[in-house]
Amino acid sequence: MIRLLYSLLFYLAQPLVWLRLIWRARRQPDYLRHLGERYGFFTGRPPEPLLWLHAVSVGETRAAAPLIDALLAEYPGHALLLTHMTPTGRAVGAEFIGKHGPRLTQAYLPYDLPGACARFLDHFKPRVGLLMETEIWPNLIAAARARNLPVLLINARLSARSQRAYRHFLPLIRPAVGGLAAVAAQTPGDASRLESIGAQGARVTGNLKFDVTPAPEKRQLGRDWRRALGRPVWLAASTREGEETLILDAFARLAPSGALLVLVPRHPQRFDEVAGVIGRHGLSSCRRSASELPTPETRVWLGDSMGEMPAYFALADLALIGGTLLPFGGQNLIEAAACACPVLVGPHTYNFAQAAEDALACGAARRVTDAEDAARTARALLADRAALAAMRKAALEFSQAHRGATARTIAIVRGVQRTEV
Question: Which domains does the chain have, with CATH numbers?
Fold first, then answer.
C-alpha cells in the first residue's frame, strides 16, 4: 500500500520532472535526448546473456571502471549493460566502449515507475543487477524480485544524514533494502547504517574508488605541464556552486607571489558561469579549452575539460577538495591520493567520511575551516617542501593500503550468482 502511494505521487510529479529536465537542458541539451529510455522504452535487441551495472553519474561511473573490467573477465560469455541517470555519466561510460567494444552497452535507467521498471527489465532480461552506492529504488527492486532477478547494492554508502532522512520513510525503504540479494558496504559504519534501514547482513568490501588506476597518459600530461610552468600550483578540484567565489577571494588576498590557482568545477555545465566569476574578480586567467598553457602573468587557470582530473592532480603541489567548504558533503579525495597529491578538506566531508578521516589520520590530508584557512594553509605548505613531500608520500601509501574492493565485490557477485550465471 505504501509503495502504491509512492508510485501515485511519482506519477503526479511527472510535470515537475519534465520541468527539471527542461531546466537542466538549458545548459546540457543532452538531457532531452533518449527521453523514451527514462520511461522504459528501448529499441533494438540487447545482447544475451547480460549483466547489469547502474552507475548514476560521473563519480560512480569512474569508480566502476575496475569492476567493469573484472566482471567481463569473470563472465567472458556475458555482455554488460551500463545504466546512468545523467548525460555526463553516460558520456564517461561511453569511454569504456572503446576498450570493451560490443560487450558493453549503455542506456538510461528509467524513473522508478512500475511500468517503466517492468519494461526495462523485460527488454534487457539481465541475469544480475548491481546498483552503485545509494541507489535504492522501491519499484525497481520489487520488479526485480518478481522476476527472480538478484539485485545487489555495491560500493554502498549511507551517511548519518541520509540515515536520518530514510528513517522517516522506513515503511517504504525497509522492504526495498530488505529485498536486495546482498549489500557490499564501503565501511563498517555504512554497513551498520544500512542494516538499520533494513539491509540483511551487509558485508564490508571497501571503496571501489581505491582500485581505480589513474590513466598514465593523463598523469604524464600533468607532469609535462608542471615542468613547463615551473611555478607553485594550488588546485581547487571539483568545486561546487558558491565555493569558487570564496576560493578566489581568499586566493587574491593570501596566495604567495607567483602561485597559480587551477580551478576545476565539478559540473561541466558550469564552466562558463565560473569563467564569469573569475572575470569579475579581475584576476588574469585562461582556460584549458583554449589549449594554451598559462603565462607567468596568469593567476587562474580554469580547468574546463573532461576526463583530465589525474593530469590536474599530477600538476598540483596541493589540492583543495571541492564540496567540502560548503555543506555539499565533499567530493572524492581518493583520486588525488592515487596521484600522490596532498589534499586539504573543509568541514563538510560526510559523503566520504571514513576516507577523509583515514587520510587525515595518516597525514595525507589536512582539515581547514574555510576558504581563508585553506589559502593560509596552502601558502604555508607551498613554502615548506619537506612537509609537502611527507604528505605526498602519505597520500600514495594511503591509496595503496585500501585497495582490493573490486576482488571482494566480485566474490559476493560470484556467491549470489553461482547457479544463475
Answer: 26-206+404-416 (3.40.50.11720), 216-401 (3.40.50.2000)
